[in-house]
Amino acid sequence: MEKDNLLIRVNIIVGLIIIILAILTIIFANILLLTLMLLLSIALLFVGIGRISNAFLNEKLNKIGKALKYFTGILAIAVSISIMIITMINPTFSILILINLVGYTLLAIGIARIFVGIMMEKYSKKYRFILIIVGIASLIFAFLVVIFPTFGYFVIVILLSLSLLFNGFARISYALSKIK
Questions:
Q1: Residue 73, Cβ density class (10 Å: 0-12 exposed, 13-18 middle, ≥19 buried)
Q2: pLDDT tens digit string along 72-122?
Q3: CA dihedral 25, 27, 33, 38 (to 10 degrees)
Q4: Which one-letter DSSP state was computed for residue 153?
Q5: Which of 7, 10, 100, 145 is the S-S candidate for 57 at Cβ 3.0 to 4.6 Å?
Q6: How far is CA 163 from the centre of its chain?
């Protein structure tokens, strides 16, 4: 019971932080590239933290679900730290590399969400459906980012921010589905 309450709280807090950072990323997109990249990397850091927390705290996940959440969480954190370092070292060069890194990370997270939505029969059908839809949306946004990096950073940032926003809502939706 204590783990369930902690899991609910972690998911709501992490989901809200991801949503807030995604919205801030959209609002400040035209102001400063460094702020934009920093906000994206912080949001991605929280995505990773949330996924790793779920891997350890969510007792309903099977071994594959735990491994997927853990692996994609580590990947999100590694990409987040990479974004921070590359942006500080060479902001101009970092744009294309970083957007691709984030795009590939969101591909992995989208695939993981779809697999968890399909495989986790212990979750409610409603939540599994939400996971699959969010996973598909993440894949679409990530594919657009990876396949068409020439869209320019603004459009890509909007797509990435929307993907983060959807993932934040999915995390909160999961937490709310656990409240009895």
A1: buried
A2: 999 999 989 988 888 788 876 777 776 777 778 888 989 998 998 998 888
A3: -30
A4: H
A5: 7
A6: 7
For residue 180, what is the DSSP state?
Answer: -
Q: 21 to each of 41, 44, 179, how far by Cα in Å?
A: 10, 9, 25
pTM over 0.70: no
Note whether 165 and 23 are within 8 A (CB). Answer: yes
Count how many domains the chain has: 1
Q: Residue 158 sits in which domain range?
A: 2-178
Task: Please state, in angstroms and rounded to a whole number, the distance separating the CA atoms of residues 93 and 70.
Answer: 30
Any idea which residue has 């102001």 for tokens? 31
Query: Is residue 108 a contact partner of residue 147, using CB atoms and an 8 Å limit?
Result: no
Among 29, 49, 51, smallest CA distance to 39 is for 29
At position 117, the amino acid (one-letter code) is G
Residue 142, helix vs strand vs coil: helix
Strand (E) or helix (H) holding 102: helix 91-119
